[in-house]
Amino acid sequence: MLQCGELFTKDAYDSDSIKFNNVLLLQAKYDEFACFRDYANTISDKVLHSDLRSGFLGTANESAKWNSSFGNFSDGSARRMELLQTNHRLVTCNSHGMATAINWFGNTIGLDSKISPKNHIFLGKECFSLLAMLLAIAASLAFMELLLCIPFFASVKQKLPEESKMLKEPKSFWKAAIITMLIAGLTYPFMTQLGHGLLPLPESLFRLTVGNGFIGWYSLLILIMLATTAMAARKSKKKGAAITYYDLGLSSESKKDKIDWVLCAKSALLAVLMFFLIYAILAISESAFLVDFRFIWPVFKSFSQPRPVQFLVYIPIFALFFILNNSKIFAQMRVKDLTRPGFKGFVASWWKYALCMAGGLLLLALIEYLPFFLGLGPGIDLLFTPLFGGPFISLLIVFIPQVLVFSVICTYAFRSSGSIYTGAFLVAMLACQVVSGGSTFT
After folding, report:
1. pLDDT band (50, 70, 90) for residue 101
2. Residue range 5-34, pLDDT digits in tens
3. Fewer CB within 10 Å, N- or C-terminus of the chain?
């Protein structure tokens, strides 16, 4: 079975020695990878009737059909192309594709089952593993509250200032939010592809395909955040209202004029303990039920060799990015609702910060998929060529929900601890685990 597989003509491989028996191709109608669309903008009957597709089915061009079997199972010549109304990442969770695959393997190996091919439990399993993951994260936040009551961690809890030079009125907040979203969204396709393909990283050390793409993107955003923060600090100093490290969320109230490294270290230790709790719950789930924490994409998996080393390689860049990102969004773009108590205060501040963190990616997803669903082709391919489409654009459908979860963690941790460190360190470790624990090596 080819899951969104790329087809080749027989002269592309040793067709005299290599034989493929009874092949099923699951074709996503909205596949973001140009190679899986035969480099056409859309999947249509024109693609179906090409020499490549009819050659795969073993029939004349005009006889080629979607969702129809050709050839014979007995001699291994059976071929079928199933068209699924989904995109690349969701093929594995498409009920039509799942039923087709079960039927295909049943016909190939002579499987006699009384269970209907349409009788699936996979979506329920996905939903419950998502619930388990969210509950593990919630448990880590409750664990943080307990640890903050211990004298050693008590100093991590800072008071959020009622008034701050960083407090944004609605007009200035939305101006800063729009700029933040545009920078993040418009740089994503270019810098992830640059990091994935052209960034001069030693391959023996930086071995993660997705990780390298994110390093490229994060590195540019780090430089932008450092530059804009320095510019804001210089502007405020000229006005006689110098910005302190406390204003930036990087220090305690008693050490405003310098980074509080003790606060940073204790916050990092607190985040590590929270991360270990999530990892322990994950390990129990894998040991007891053979199930990791995922929804569509392998979000959290326990580490196997050499993935722990890869985690340590990537975590410094991830940590620096999320520290600066939390400082920029939460500390430097404070809203009045941040100090408003209770659940209503949390929601009133969270949705604004969630939009800052994920809004640019949501905009990018609209640019990609609206033209695609209208039958024109993927928006990124149309605007910037297929070079900047494909893998990292297809990741948006799983990356955006992750960022939204990270925004909940960061908002809660900032409101609870008063500094940006705890939330930043925790989401950096979770993001790095997603990449190092479940993505492919270069």
Report:
1. very high
2. 889 888 888 888 888 999 999 999 999 999
3. C
* Residues in contact with 113: Cβ distance below 8 Å, sequence separation at least 6, in sequence order: 106
- Express as a percent the part of the chain with pLDDT over 90: 67
Task: Report the predicted TM-score, pTM, of the whole model to 2 decimal places.
Answer: 0.92
Asked whether residue 320 falls in the same domain as residue 359, the answer is: yes
Per-residue pLDDT, 132: 94
398 falls within a domain: yes
pLDDT for the residue 246: 87
Note down the domain range covering 13: 2-109
Q: Scanning the structure block, which residue is given the tokens 């092949």?
A: 23
pLDDT in tens, 250-279: 998 888 889 999 999 999 999 999 999 999
Residue 388 domain flag: yes
